[in-house]
Amino acid sequence: MRTFFLLIFILGITVANAQTEEVFNRIIETGTTDNQSMQHLDVLSNRFGGRLVGSDAYENAAVWAASKFEEWGMKVIFDEVGELPVGFNRGPWFGRLLAENGMHLHFATPSYTSGTKGVQRGHVLIEPKTEAEFERMKGKLEGAWVLISGENTGWPIDFSEGGDKIRRSIREKNKKIAEENQRIRKENRENRDKKRYKKQEIQELVEHPALFYREMVDAGILGIIQSSKVPIRVLYDRKNVHDLVFDSLPEVPDIKLDEHQYDVIYQMAKERRYFQLEFDIRNHFKMGPVKYHNVIGIIPGTEFPDEYVIMGGHLDAFDVATGGVDDGSGVTPTMEAARLIMEAGGKPKRTILTVLWAGEEFGLYGSKSWVKKNEDKLDKVSNMVNRDSGPTVPVSITVSEAMKEDFIPIAEAINRINPEFPLELKEREPRERPERPWGTDSGPFAVKGIPTIGFDLGDPKGYDFNYGEIWHTERDTYDKSIAEYQEHAAVATAILVYGIADLDHLLDREGYYLETEE
Predict the structure, then answer these.
(1) Nearest to residue 328, comparing CAs of 360, 298, 296?
(2) Are 239 and 162 in contact (CB under 8 A)?
(3) Are 476 and 322 in contact (CB under 8 A)?
């Protein structure tokens, strides 16, 4: 009798494995003959564009993604994450140098900063650095574009009271330095003929961009212009975005200009030549509050519906470009992985959550919110797969010793997709559990001790992809994603997630992180 039950048990395992393999095969078949990853990316990047939280583009993309999940037969949850006091939509922008050496200007502005009031044309000044300089030129500031110091880091000049306080402090230091310099110049001049007199050095003023920001705005400047490396990176007004009030929004544009053009214009202004700049910048706000949501597509588990495998990427993207890579290259293969599982008739043992995270670029808002609201589920999350590191292809996967046996059939199935992209299964040593989230949506899960096993990526065909080139810059566009890598990643992700979800047990967390004393 014992032998009979053992045979039944083995037969059950064999049938279950065969069913999983059958789904794998159908995923591979559909994924290699009708892969829609790039179609999803086309819609996301080229129909909606940059998807900043608080923008119409983000809301439209969320509704569209939810409609696709429903179309594929998935349940959908709009998971509210938070709200912003005002919204922001970016329109087109252009600028020109009006002079004998005139040119079209290459620039951008951070999100949640002001645009122009139509086409605005004005003369150009270099910002004052001291009270005396400000007093000397304050009458000429009205209607001027002002060149400010420093190099663009992506963030706008802080116009808050905190920013004003910093500027006042530096101006007070500079006032004392200027007074001391005046004394030194006088003493040097009076003692220049004395043989034993050692000439004193003039001190440098403390550099800080837009030291007289508030005073220049009150004087009627058209905007400020700062030098920027290329490609131009612009972010958002993180210091003020949560405190913006529709009736008292930022007043003047904060322009980040191509450093090569900036140098030409700065030299012309330094020479006190008369010329003009012309800008038309359509940065638009909308009244809030504007709520934003994670979009969650659900494939219910058949045996362990209260256990989960999560896959995702962040739906939001900076709007100076179209989010074709960050994180269109993560969101759309993830969406396609969900479609492939549904198309293959997959009915996993545990629930698969496909989560398009909100507000990652503002500080992991969506993933932090989900983890906080679902503390009771965290022990039942088998794995969290996050794709947010570019459009390259899976080349390996690294797991703990306790998990390795579970990943062998998964890796074998992935290696049947395309021989050009072999996947290596690696083993890792236990690591320290992070105390703070790292900079992508898997971070809050890792802090809680949840496995965040995803693919190690590579560029085996040598497409020369450079993440730094597109990261939060104007070049983050659809054409920077690599189609064959994206499509392969979608199929591999579908197999990985379905394989984990269809195990008869949760992944063993032993040895994934180093044990810590409570």
Answers:
(1) 360
(2) yes
(3) yes
- The one-letter amino acid at 52: L
> How far apart are alpha carbons 379 and 448 in whole angstroms?
9
Tokens describing residue 75: 């349940």
Domains and CATH numbers, the chain: 20-86+289-501 (3.40.630.10), 100-274 (3.50.30)
CB atoms within 10 A of CB 25: 14
Q: What is the mean pLDDT of residues 220-249?
A: 96
Instruction: Give the integer Cα–Cα distance in Å for 376 and 512.
Output: 21
Tokens of 307: 């256990």
Whether the bond between 254 and the residue before it is cis, its omega within 30 degrees of 0, is no
CA distance 448 to 495: 25
Average pLDDT along the chain: 95
**Residue-wise pLDDT tens digits, 82-125:** 999 999 999 999 999 999 999 999 999 999 999 999 999 999 99
Closest alpha carbon to 334 in 99, 24, 27, 37: 37
Q: What is the pTM of this model?
A: 0.94
The pair of three-digit structure tokens given for residue 76, joined into one six-digit string: 């959908």
